[in-house]
Amino acid sequence: MKRGTLKMKNTWLAGAMALSLIGTGCATKKYVAQQIEPVQQRVTGTENKNVEQDKAIASQGNEIQELDRDLSRTKEKLTDVDNKATQAGQAAKAADQKADGAQQAANGAQQAATNAKTFAEQGLDRLGRTVDSMNKFQMAKSATVLFAVAQDKLTADAKQQLDDLAKQASGLDRYVIEIQGFTDKTGPPAYNETLSERRAEAVARYLAVEYKIPVRNLTLLGEGYAQPVADDKTRDGRKQNRRVEVKLWVPETGSSAGKAVAAGPAQ
Fold it and tell me: Is the pTM of this model over 0.85?
């Protein structure tokens, strides 16, 4: 009886213990589940956050790569700009050098033009002075040839005087022989003018034929009774008035023409 009771008691106790264990197991699982679920949620949330962070990091990495590429392109552009700036600076320097050379050339041309102008002005001034001097003549020699009444023929004495004057002109480059014929008051004025012209022509003809004096170097004029040198009321006075005055003119220069007449004083 006791054994049976004890056996039943043990069986019941075992069952109770089993139920207790089963109940305890369910309670533990639930407790564990209650304790684990928040942790799991946090872990899941952390994983989600990690995924988002990974995405953000990846996006930032992409952005960093893009920025790096932009930076590289910017560096390339800056390098290109720097190269262009360097080339521009070199071109500007070369242009400055060319401009300096052009300015120097312009200054040289201006100086040359100024020198040429000065030289030309000096040359023109010298030429002007030379022309002025050449147009100014001085009398180197003179002679007075006398004629008989109503005559236009040269006497031996007249020819001698013309010979001396022609020899004085020989060898000169530039000269003029001025021939002026005159008469006394005897006779009509028109006749006297014609007679004075024939006397001047006789002198010019003698110089041109005998001494080859160029006609272009001879100037002659018959003036009749225009410039008497003596009293025409006397015989000797009328003789002095029947004359041809011959004058040798040379330029007032230091040329050989001017020097050649230095030895021959005017008469």
Answer: no
